[in-house]
Amino acid sequence: MNTDRPPLVRISGVTKNFKRGSEEVHVLAGLDLDVPEAEFLALMGPSGSGKSTLLNLIGGLDRPTRGSVQIGGDRVDELSDRQLAAWRARHIGFVFQFYNLLPALTAERNIELPLLLTGLNKARRKQQVAAALEAVGLAHRARHFPRTLSGGEQQRVGIARAIVTDPTVLLCDEPTGDLDRKSGDEILALLQSLNQRHGKTIIMVTHDPHASARASRTVYLDKGQLSNTPVA
Amino acid sequence: MKYLPLALAGLRRRKLRTALTFLSVLVAFVLFAFLGAIKQAFLAGVELAGQDRLITRHKVSLIQTLPESYKARIANIPGVGAVCHFTWFGGIYQDPKNFFATMPVEPEAFLDMFPEYVVKEGERKAWLATRTGAIVGRSTAERFQWKIGDRVPLQSPIWGQPAGAAQWEFEIVGIYDGAKKGTDTTGFYFRYDYFEEARQREKGQVGWYSVRISDPNEAARIAEKVDAEFANSPYETKTEPEGAFAAGFAQQVGDIATIVMAVVGAVFFTILLVSGNTMAQSVRERVTELGVLKALGFTNGLVLVLVLVESCLVVTLGGLAGLGLAWLIITAGNPVPSLLPVFYLPNTTLVTGAAMALALGIAAGALPAVQAMRLHIAVALRKGG
After folding, report:
1. Count of structural domains within chain B
2. Which residue from A minimizes the CA distance to B14?
3. pLDDT grade, residue A2 (50/70/90)?
């Protein structure tokens, strides 16, 4: 690894506090994290440790109370809402635990959603959707609605939607959390392949040590702090 | 356009709810269009009234008659160009429900006074030559499938039987059309000389006068002069512009415009609540989906527009479909020609309806759209998990 090159994701001194009634909850406390390009990072930790909050900050879905979030040279925390939306469309692919597909749209229409925000014409969008479906092995299910797909297939559609714009970073929030072991393994193999064969930078939140074993590095989050060793 | 499938997908999520909302809006706009046509039927006389015509009637009420001799005295008043008279006959054809406006008139004076009634020259001449001749409006002729040359027996609940005959019998010598849209073509006009000779009472009396004046700006002054001419006589008069007369006539039924506005306002307010609730419910059910769209990069503004488009698709299209359906029904025929001789859907009602449909679509979707726009992504996604 070239150590002179800045990491793709740089989190510096990030603190995130929430108001719960009159009480202030400290979720992240001065947290630092660097993620180099093409890394597959697993983020583990007990429930409520702030894993999803950290993922939301990296993905520009939320803003830190203090500190900076820098991705590919962009200070994400300093962007306006409108700039942030455009930045997410260009740089981030989200994979959710419960797939979050739009039930009234077919698989291909779901995958096309991020492409609607680009200047691509219909033919180009169709091409890219077909390529994404091919990449996740679901070309034959393009016209199926989510309710007619299995959980594993729905998550594949979710991954196809996340990669269709070729984003800078793929953020996966418990991508196998709602799947059986076999389907989960298939999804993890797919993510691993995207990382190893296509050089995608992936940050994955998981509870599952079996899932984190697929990652190239695992960090642990507890009480708002990161460590390289599991929490006792 | 590329976002349209997304808006349509939102509506497909609950097909029954969307269909019921669409239908309720459609029915409301059918009602709106019918009320517009009814309002027009009552007020058409006011809109089409001649600016240069006055109506002179008995000061007490329209049903009191005036001497036929007033015609010459009115014609002599400075500023008066022409005079003709009418008498209400109340014609019934075969059955009391087949009722239409029937009046004896002096043909030449009548046709000169009302150029909006278009009669072919040959038919005009035939009327002048035929004592029992009558001209009838196109819609009444079509209603009873009358044609020129037909002999038509009519009953009059006011004048009874004619002298020496069992019933009033007329020969159709002409069918008139309206020069303008909205002209009443349900009338039946026959010759006053035949009426005067055949009626058995109140001879020499007529119902009211139409008075053409040379300068519409002088209407008030001339009306005063006409009434002054007959002041302190047994038959005092009330003279007013034709438009005011028609408005007063419509006012006898009630303030139609206000009634229509009140009904339409109540219906549209209800529709606003129904469709607004539908949209609010739809947005509540899709908090996570909207959060996902925002996570993918959809801006707040775009999410707002998507919800508004969705609302407009149901409400505006429902409204336009309702207007279209009403137009088809109204164009197919007048359901109550005896009560409302002029019955059509005015363009102003269509344009107002279309604008209302769009405004309702936006208003119904406004609050849910703003709520969708303000959704915090992380909170919205947590609701799904």
Report:
1. 2
2. A104
3. very low
- B176 and B244 share one domain: yes
Amino acid at B358: L
Same domain, B28 and B51: no
pLDDT of residue A4: 63
Tell me if chain A has a CB within 8 Å of the CB of B15. no
Blockwise average pLDDT, block size 10, chain B, 385 residues = 86 90 95 89 69 92 92 95 94 90 95 93 95 94 94 91 86 93 88 94 94 90 95 94 79 75 90 92 92 95 95 94 95 76 86 95 95 92 68
Whether residues B59 and B159 fall in one domain: yes
- Residue partners of B1: CB distance under 8 A and separation at least 6: none
Domain holding B366, by residue range, is: 4-44+254-384
Q: Which of A53, A96, A117 lies nearest to residue B297, judging by beta carbons? A: A117
A9 within domain boundaries:
no
Q: Of chain B residues 342-381, which have a CB less than 8 A from chain A?
A: 377-378, 381
Same domain, B262 and B377: yes
Buried b (16+ CB within 10 A) or exposed e, B110-141: bbebbebbbbeeebbebbeebeebbbbbebbb
- Edge-to-edge strands of the sheet including A23-35? A23-35, A9-20, A66-71, A74-75
Q: Does residue A47 lie in a domain region?
A: yes
Q: Which chain A residues touch B if contact means CB-CB below 8 Å? A: 53, 56, 59, 61-62, 81-82, 85-90, 94, 96-98, 100, 102-105, 109, 113-114, 116-117, 122, 161
**Owning domain of residue A124:** 38-63+82-227
Output the pLDDT for position B340.
74
pLDDT at B247: 76
Whether B320 and B302 have beta carbons less than 8 Å apart is answered as: no
Confidence label for A157 from pLDDT (cuts 50, 70 and 90): very high
Q: Are residues B242 and B176 in the same domain?
A: yes
CATH number of A164's domain? 3.40.50.300
Q: Residue B22's pLDDT is what? A: 95
ipTM of the complex: 0.92
Total count of domains within chain A: 1
Cβ B55 vs Cβ B242: under 8 Å: yes
Of A61, A100, A105, the CB nearest to B384: A100
Residue A23 domain-assigned (yes or no): no
Residue of B nearest to A116 (CA): B2
Same domain, yes or no: B13 and B56: no
- CB–CB of B377 and A98 under 8 A? no
In this structure, the answer to whether residues B280 and B216 fall within a common structural domain is: no
